[in-house]
Amino acid sequence: MSKSLLRKLRNALIVLFGVSLIVFMLMYLSGDPIALLLPMDTAPEVAEAMRESLGFNDPLYIQYFRFLSGAVRGDFGNSLHHNQPAMGLIIERMPATIELTLASVLIALAIAVPLGLVTAVFSNTIIDYIGSILALIGQSMPVFWLGLMLLYVAGVKYRLLPITGRGTWQHLLLPAFTVGAYTAATIARMLRSRMIEIMQQDYIKTARAKGVRHKWIVLKHALRNAVLPVITILALQLGTLLGGAVITETIFAWPGVGRFMLQAIQNRDIAIVQAGVFILAVSIVFINIFTDVIYTVLDPRIRYE
Amino acid sequence: MTRTLFNRNRLVILMLVVVLIFTGCQAATEGDNNGDDTEKVLTVLQGVDPTTMDPNMHSETPTANVDRQMFDSLLDQDDSMNIVESLASSWEMQDETTWKFYLRDDVFFHDGVQFTANDVKFTIERIQNPENNSSQIGNYSAISEVVIEDDFELIIKTAEPYPLLLVRLAALRVVPKHYIEEVGQETFASEPIGTGPYKFERWVKDEHVTLVANEDYWKGSPSVKKVIFKPVPESAARVMALQAGEADIIVNLPPHQVSEVENDASLSVGQTNSTRFIMLVFTTKNQLVSDVKVRQAINYAIDVDSIVNNIFSGRATPTAQPVANFDLGFDSNLEPYGFNLERAQELLSDAGIAEGIVINMGSPSGRYPMDKEVAEAIAAQLGSVGFDVNLSFEEWGSYATNTLQGQQKHDVWLIGWGSSTFDAGSTLDFWLNTNLITAYYQDSNYNPVLDELLNESKRTMDDQARESLYHQVIEIIHEQAAFVPLYQQVDLYGLSQRISWSPRPDEIIRVFNIDWNE
Predict the structure, then answer these.
(1) What ipTM does this complex have?
(2) I need a surface site. Which of B166, B370, B429, B449 has the fewest CB within 10 A?
(3) Phi, psi of B266, deg, nearest 5
(4) CB contact under 8 A, A54 and B133
């Protein structure tokens, strides 16, 4: 266990290094941070002086190693546009992103588990058809369209919920639902097909033969086995969402990391992008490790291997 | 046994998550402007959050919109962009490089400390200090010395005659020397104090900035007592927030949503000519557009009126020059080429351009209102005179970088431009002066003349003389079709009927000038 954990951490470090190198190169090759900082009609010699004083004229590898030596000490440098430490700026925006992520996952589960179960238990009936169509719609609806429609209906037409900002559960509801809808649909479909498959297994037949009640067969014997792939999807989704649900955050003016990173990318504010990518990579690594642990709890077979 | 354990764990996790969410929800509920009737709050929605509260360290309009409420500038510009008094009540030019300023003696910072000439000197030198990496450093590099005569009189010297000094000083937001020395730059950038009509109250990053009225403001107490700036990046969401009564002013109202806002009885549309204009630039070192006839043909081939009417519903002003109508140097007598298909075809055949020749065109997408639609319309129009248009859209960051580094390779490409000095000089210099890498117009016959005119204008202190130099430049580039000037933008705002306010061409919202209607 501890050996595999160490191996995972080592791999994570390699991934982090690779990611930071690629991001650094892409950012530098595609635009000049100084050009995007100064007003367009600034005299070129002024821009040049600033480029020089900030070290942007040094060879790329020197700039990268300067960044790297700071980063290993936890210093990602100052944001050019905000004149503040980049890591602090990212961390300030994490609570909003975490809040949105957790809420959307809760909403997704609250929709997906009943939907997946019902469509599986009543497979090939009208209930299944309706449920499956709902799931298909949820999966294929573009996020920006769903977001804007929700805003229009709940915010403008019926004035039920606020349109912008963060602070109360009313503010959270629409963005969380927008993000959660897709996850819910994916999980529901996955759960349905796994459940249908499992219900054909021999041990389920055995349970039936023993006279276990149908309810318990579904909830205890089948669901527990069907839930593993759901955990995988959830973990993947969590990782993605912690990087910020960019479109949703933009539409709902949600003050999270995604929207902030997008702006930083557009401004070539490299310190912020690097700090953000670092946080994201670390959280994905930890989620993966955490998922592995959950697997062993849920499925003893994995523990014994 | 395992089942109950498992259930209990699940329950604990679930509860943890719920607790987490609701603790996260406790903060910042005061952002809303509904409810409390005793204190009306003005809400302004912009596309992005300010990057700093330090007015000397950025060059962004959305950020300036917030800091301009808290700080006064040494001079100011009225709604027609004329220089007027502000913290300096009068000034005189002693010689071509020496200016004397007389400061008001009744101005106090928000902490009660009096504003003096020391603060002005401190502000200028702070921007000039390369260690501070201020993006405004270029605006004040002409100033060679600031001499304090006494608390309310100071001399500003420039190394050479510098006609733009007063405009630059009208953008100089004066910061408190004593406060910054006491708390440091970083604290100042998040908890600022100034002399302006509003005091800083709270900034929750990417959520809102809240300012409250400075009742002791030297121009009088503001009628709006509290103002909140919120970033809402999606323009459709800004419009919906306005419709739902969550906002009083929204910026960058999309042209296609104007009628929707106009049709709502509780809303109105504010508009003004922007200082920004949109044009096509020719890279004349490319063979195809090195011929003046081809450039003129392209000018004739583009139907700007149709673009303005169909894409902007008439809310843009066709223009004949790369200069906005507020800028010194704008030639109001100059007429655009106008749409003339026959003339275009004639010129192209004169130039020996065969049907189906490929022209490379570039444009950003999403940087200016409807830029993508405009570029597509132009591509179609160029296609109708026989060009095979290869139109590519680029991400703004690399597009801007290429532009500034003289690396744009397209034959013709779209860009928006505005002078930050209200003077045609910086714009014309940028695009035409062959000392700069951005001189995309290259013609051995005309470049020497243009260079001479532009260099002379930089030394010319007299506004009228400078204007006539600019007119000569504009005449040449018009005749030589160095650009395709398209239209001057109109800034559109969505407004609630609760307020009366008219927008300014420099895009700065002066909350001090806003009154409640009710």
Answers:
(1) 0.88
(2) B449
(3) -90, 5
(4) yes
Residue with tokens 């902490």: B111
Whether residues B233 and A250 touch (CB distance < 8 A) is answered with yes
Nearest Cα residue to B395 out of A30, A274, A277, A264: A30
Low-confidence ranges of chain A (pLDDT < 70): 1-2, 303-305
Residues of A with Cβ-Cβ distance to B396 under 8 angstroms: 266
Minimal Cβ distance to A41: which of B32, B234, B430: B430
Give the nearest chain A residue to B435 (CA atoms): A44
Residue B24 has pLDDT above 60, yes or no: no
- Kindly list the residues from chain B whose CB atom is less than 8 angstroms away from the CB atom of residue A256: 206
B312: pLDDT strictly greater than 60: yes
Share the mean pLDDT of chain A.
88
The answer to whether B152 and B34 are in contact (CB under 8 A) is no
Q: How far is CA A11 from the centre of its chain?
A: 21
- Selecting from A82, A156, A169 the residue whose C-beta is nearest the C-beta of B240 gives A156
Query: How far is it between the farthest Cα atoms of chain A?
Result: 86
Q: Is residue A256 within 8 Å of residue A96, measured between CB atoms?
A: yes
Question: What pLDDT, on the 0 to 100 scale, is given for residue B17?
Answer: 52
CA distance A19 to A299: 33
Helix (H, G, I), strand (E, B) or coil at B42: strand
Provide the domain count of chain B. Answer: 3
Q: Which domains does chain A have, with CATH numbers?
A: 2-72 (no CATH), 95-267 (1.10.3720.10)
Question: What's the pLDDT band for B4 if we cut at 50, 70, 90?
Answer: very low
From the list A46, A98, A168, the residue facing B25 with the nearest CB is A168
A251 touches chain B (CB under 8 A): yes
* Residues of chain A positioned with their CB less than 8 A from the CB of B22: 169
- How far is C-alpha B11 from the geometric centre of its chain's CA atoms? 54
In Å, how far are A188, B423, B469, B473 from B427, measured between CA atoms?
Answer: 59, 8, 14, 12
Determine what percent of chain B is predicted with pLDDT higher than 90.
84
Print the domain residue range for B205.
3-55+60-64+185-272+491-516
